Amino acid sequence: MAKTIKGRVQHPAYTAAALKAKNPVLLKGEIVYESDTTLHKVGDGVTPWNALAYARGGDLRAESRPNRSTRTPPAVS
Fold this sequence. Notes:
three-stranded mixed sheet, little secondary structure
């Protein structure tokens, strides 16, 4: 008989300004979201946050929203 394993994963979410200031190097495959822009990046283990490209994909908060991942994030003052 097959067993179903249920689990949950929660990815970190920080503001764009906080991530820009800290400029962390994400682990390979680590996903971090900008809570104010809803954009995300996936780490490669060597590239700092500010040099990583935004990942492609839709707004993961609601599937009914249009794909906004290619938009330019707001400028941080």
